[in-house]
Amino acid sequence: MNILIVIAHPERWSFSGALLDTAARALEASGHIVVVSDLYRMGFNPVADRRNFLTMKDPDYLKLQVEEAHASEHNGFAPEIGAEIRKIEACDLMILLFPLWWFGLPAILKGWVDRVLAMGRTYGYGKWYQTGTFRGKRALLSFTTGGPEEFYRKGGLFGDISAIVHPIHRGILQFVGFEVLGPQIHYAAGRADEATRKAWLADWEKRLHSIAHESPIEIESYHCYSQNQSRPGCRP
Question: What is the pLDDT of residues 77-120, one digit of tens each?
Fold first, then answer.
């Protein structure tokens, strides 16, 4: 498989960095081709504006979706955006690797999503969810948290972790057609001792050796929905 790992962590030698190194080593040892977008080391600019484009549809008013659709038709994306889109198009599996900040993606990774998942090229015109551009591809979140696991359970201090990641799983990955694998979560990684971290890395490596055979999780029955309404008999 062709695998894209997008990592967002400011410290290369963090535990997230160790997860990246373990993933690259394990996947390549299993015969996969690994491409890494290390957003901080790339100096990726997360701000979406006219710098996304070489072309211009409307010089007087910036509406990103209009410009994205125009750029999609005229090969008009800035080189750094076009390069990232091509990486996604080429991959069979995409891994987003990051620390969970404020119950969501770090700004640099959210900006990558905002700029790279462009209308016309990656979604739109009837291409979403089960008809999404990236149908047949899979995606996986690998992230660390600041709090312990019990904080992220139903009724816990921070709430159910599945609800926290749902906007990423459902609103980003599934939206553009990815099938989503179960997340790889390491709780309270900053407080973990060396033995615990080694055990985590060993489990991560073991999982990745057989990742090609994993089945996606079912987040909800989105096949029951048309663009404007649900069909009778389908649960909301």
Answer: 999 999 999 999 999 999 999 999 999 999 999 999 999 999 99
Q: Is the pTM of this model over 0.70?
A: yes
In terms of Cα–Cα distance, which of 122, 212, 233, 121 is closest to 173? Answer: 122
The first and second tokens of residue 29, run together, are 């040892």
Q: How far is CA 23 from CA 20, 68, 75, 227, in A?
A: 5, 33, 33, 37
Higher-confidence residue: 231 or 122?
122
pLDDT at 220: 60
pLDDT of residue 88: 98
Integer CA distances (angstroms), 54 to 37, 72, 136, 193, in order:
22, 11, 30, 48
Rounded (10°) CA dihedral 185, 219, 214, 144? -10
The C-alpha atoms of residue 203 and residue 220 are separated, in whole angstroms, by: 28
Give me the pLDDT at residue 205, please.
97
| Domains with residue ranges and CATH for the chain | 2-224 (3.40.50.360)
